[in-house]
Specification:
By secondary structure, this protein is mainly beta. It is built from four helices and 81 strands. The chain has an 18-stranded mixed sheet that branches. Strands 1, 2, 3, 4, 5, 8, 9 and 10 form an eight-stranded antiparallel sheet that branches.
Amino acid sequence: MRPSGLLAAAARGRRTLAAGLAALALLATGAASAQTTSFVETVSAANTFNNPSDPFAGNPECTLQTGVHTFSARTIVATVTGPHTFTMSAATGLGDASGTGTDPWAAIFSGDFNPAAPTAGLINCDDDTVNGVVRTPSLTVNLVAGQRYTLVTSNWQAGIHPGTATYQVTQPIVLAGAPVPVVSVSNVTFDQALVGYTTPGGGTLYWTVQRASAPAPSPAQVAAGQDGSGAPAVAGGNQLFSAAGGGSSTVTGLQASTAYSAYAVVTDRQTPPQTTATPSGVGFTTLSDLPGAPTAVGAAATANVGEVLVNFTPPAYSGAGAVTQYTVTSAPGGITATGAGSPILVTGLTGGTEYTFTVTATNVAGEGVPSAPSNPATPLAAPVLGAFADQVVTFGDAPFNLVAPTSDSPGAFSFSIDDPAVATVSGSTVTIVGIGTATITASQAAAPGYVAASTTAQITVNPAAPVISWAPGLVMTYGEPAQALPLPTSNSGGAFTYSSANASVASVSGNQVAPVNVGSTVLTATQAAFGNYTGGSVQMPVQVLPATPVLAWISDFSRTFGDAAFPLTSPTGPSDGAFTYSSSDAAVATVSGNVVTITGAGTVTLTATQAPSSDGNYAGASISVVMTVEKATPAISWVALLQRTWGEPAFALPAVSTNSTGAITYASSNTGVATVSGNVVTMLNIGSTTITASQAADANYLAAEVSLVLEVGAATPALTWVGDISKTYGEPAFDLPNPSSPSPGAFTFTSANTAVATVSGRTVTIVGPGTTVLTATQAASGNWAASSVTTTLVVNARPDPTQDPGVVGGLQAQVDQAVRFATTQQGNIRDRLRQQRDADGNRDSHAVALQVLGGDGQALSLNAGPRSGGDDGLLPEGWGAWSAGTITIGQRDATASAQGFDIRSDGLTLGADYRFDGGSVAGIALGHGWGESPLDDGRSAVEGEQLSLAAYGLWRFDSLFVDGLLGWGQLDFDIARYSSVADATARARREGDQWFGSLTLGWEMASSLVGYTRFDASRSTLEAYREFGLGIYDLSYTRQRVDQSTVSAGVEGRHRWETSSGVMRPYWTLEYRRALENRSNVGINYVVLPAANDYVLGLRSFADDGLVLGLGLDVEITRGWKLGLMGRLERANDIGNTSSVGLQLSWTPSGSGPGAASTGKR
């Protein structure tokens, strides 16, 4: 890529930075192009074209006589895009009207010039006369880098006028050399091939095909159709092209499996014509006439012993004719089989032996090469099985596993049983189904090398004893009827019979059992043999319990609390047992003997309990009756009248007089006047209501009630409302709540100062900062009079953002980073120019330095001493690539106008330059800088980034020198600002660009002393932006321009001492800097309800004027190794004194010479 291409790529921004760096690397390592701005054209009498009309192509500024003209045609390639002016500075011959002088004519065409169509592709042309004044032609055209054009030189008069013309061009161009065609070969068979060829421009293309064993031909031999030995080529031809293009030719009659080479040359249409210097060539080999090898060969054993079936895919290339036969060959053994196609069966193989197979194809020319071996395949063999044992089991036995017979085959065994009514098998597990005999078959599956096989055994299943279970026991009651016995459970289906061990306790008939007397016995159930089971029996115990007698007694009855005691009558029943009596609740009644005494109201159960009978056949029993004791009526009294005032607090009612203990509840007959909760009365309105006291029944008394009259008078409401309200201008409208009031009257709201706030309904809208009184007025309603209440609203103004340290610090960080990015790139490029000024040759240089700063953060690069002559590196002669940069960590001190903040920044530069004879240098550089500025509050920060592109140069005039640079950069900032007022963080993104430059004039007062003056300037334009995240405190910022320029004067010195241990190089610098311009103003306003005029903040970058003293010493400690000591002291306005020291260890490869400069960067 040319430097202009690199500039264009870098200017597209950060996303093309990688592409620009790659282009720079290509520029540094690629071969130099044949560029020129001056050349001579020769017009030959042998080249002519016919102009059909005058002016030429209808262009009134370009006259050309009609008729035949001699001409020269020069192919050129533009290296940069833009206007090019071609001026014919001198001409000889080319004829005039008398035929004795010069009368030249020139034209530029796109692509090639075609004499048969001379106006085709014309861009511009010029004769030698303007307004009657004769001059040499000059024409300006816009050319595109990398495109081909043709410059035609001729004479204004028709006729044969040879001569020469000298041209000067304002932009470098490349004069096309001899054309280089491209030749290719495709569609190669055993006897023919397709030769393709292309030419980069118009002309005649010649091509030949020769055996590869012949020497490479010359261009003349290709054009003559000969091979490199001078003999006729195997094939050849030529084709005329009017412009860049291509074609192809089919060559036949080639020999199979033979190597050939195809060549091509082009004679172009330039004057004089140029022919390809070395023929373009490509080799190829014809295919064989035998068929190719079959592919995808696969083998698989068949189900038969000793057989394998081989599958394959026919070859893609059949050679000189169709395939007539395929042959399959085994390995080992070499057993073959043939066939007309896939598949082919191979027999006679040994079972159990692994084979692979190859396949060949045969045509009229013979048998082709064998295929790749197939996959291994093993033909099958018959296995030998061992003994398989018979099985004897009992019905009901658990499932068991079969043991397979022995076998020499690894095939898996499976089992089957011929009678599923006897047994079944799953896998190798046998499950017994029924008694009997069946046959078990063990089947072995086919396995690699073996076919399937089987053998049999007998299984005999004998009957089993049944498993019988019965109920755990039976309990019966004396006197109850006979009942059916429960059926025992059994796994056999045999019939059951039953018997009793003691018929005097319980008797059995069939399956019925009947109780006879109280006692215990055993019953037996006997099961007959059935199916797969023998006979069996089971026993069950039986117990006969005494019966419970049925008693009769009196019905339920009632008494009244206070009645006298009374006796109970005895119940009746079949048992002769004695009776006793009891009460369930002694609080209601007690029993003594059979006499009942009432103790309280309620319900009680009286129970008569009978003992067991004397013969034991009846158990004890009981019977109950319910007696209800009714409650008495209480005596109750209360006051008749109460008087109260409405609005008084709730009050407790006076006590009710009563002889009952029941709970008392109260109710109001008119709840619109008063309500009662518990015994507390709440008055609601004026009026009269009856309060009723209701006493609930207690344990011994019934419920009762008594009432009184309550009279309520009227009252005045008391209002309560919100406290004073504080708001900030910019907040949204808000609603007022209703005051708290016992009155239901409607409320209205007003504002005393509508310049601060207005009220609509209950909604308050903030108008401006200040104080107003808000009034809520309640209308009279019912028993309440009208009333009002007030509160104070204070609306605070938002703070002046120019007084916010976070705002000022964030803007100051952007200004300082923008200036620092520019000064860093200026310093890196100036250091490179200082290297070039001190050296007598161009060499690569790569270094990165780390620097710790204080104060204003300014740094000065120190000269490490002289650099020796001679180029180094991998670039072409005169070129040098370099990288430099400083990674800086430090803190900017607070000043009177801006707070301090931490800052971390970095600037890296990558460049390439060319050194001309005489020591002048021109180059370009790409820069990347980034910085992070966390502000004093850790939640605020500014992160900046710069991408830049700069051009620079150095010019020497004996002891004087001038160097300068001009650059453009793109800026990006990510901003976070914490606001303590909003207790939140605002975020924003800002973009910008900048121009920066530097111009230095210096003079070398002695071999080791240099004085200089320098002008530095930068202009950064930061776009307007706004914040997000603080609501009404979000700020917007106007477009901002940061201008800074300084002028500096300084002197540098160095010396070199040779010692027995090496070389010592002390050096020093003294510089005074004066600021010419350092300012930047920015407008600030709130996003929501902005102020009528922007707040304006004036900013300055870091220190203006300063004095810098730097000292250093380089010492060669051993061959190639150097130790550097550095010190720096600076005094700047508003900052004071700052100082720094440094230590550097560097190494120079051997061969660079004892005077080679360090590759380190200070």
